[in-house]
Amino acid sequence: MNTYQGGCHCGWISFSVSGEIDRLLDCNCSLCSKRGGLLWFVPRAQLTLNSPRADELPTYRFNSGRIAHHFCDRCGCAPFSEAPGPDGKPMAAVNARCLEGVDLSVYPVSHYDGRNH
Questions:
Q1: Which single residue of 5, 80, 92, 116 has CA 20 to 30 Å from 62?
Q2: What is the DSSP letter of 63?
Q3: pLDDT tens string 62-92
Q4: Domain boundaries, the chain
Q5: Long-range pairs for 62-69: beta carbons < 8 A, 24 or more residues apart
Q6: DSSP 3-state assignment of 62?
Q7: 24 — alpha (psi -120 to 50), left (phi > 0) or beta?
Q8: Structure pTM?
Q9: Cα separation of the two ends of the chain
Q10: Cα–Cα distances in Å, from 46 out to 40, 49, 62?
Q11: CATH T-level fold of 2-102
Q12: Are 93 and 81 in contact (CB under 8 A)?
């Protein structure tokens, strides 16, 4: 299992995440289409927040409010979100563009029509 380092542009949000990237998801919902993330889904336990403390993360919720979209209020990057997965277990949606040293061009990208779901 690989461990990747990630975070926001200025470094205030820093995390490590373990797993094997097998595919990325490009969502066209109103938020994802504006911020341009490519999402990699992992169990939340595989993401370790290095900084800041979890209770200090700025968070945006919209629509059902189910997904906690975390972002840096200093540089504006949105490195990951978290929510219960389909089975109810905590999941993280990591913005793969916020991972260090990862060549995203080698992974297949699935498109999700979040705008209409």
A1: 5
A2: T
A3: 989 999 999 999 999 999 999 999 999 999 9
A4: 2-102
A5: 62/30, 62/31, 67/93, 69/31
A6: coil
A7: beta
A8: 0.94
A9: 33
A10: 12, 10, 25
A11: 2.170.150
A12: yes
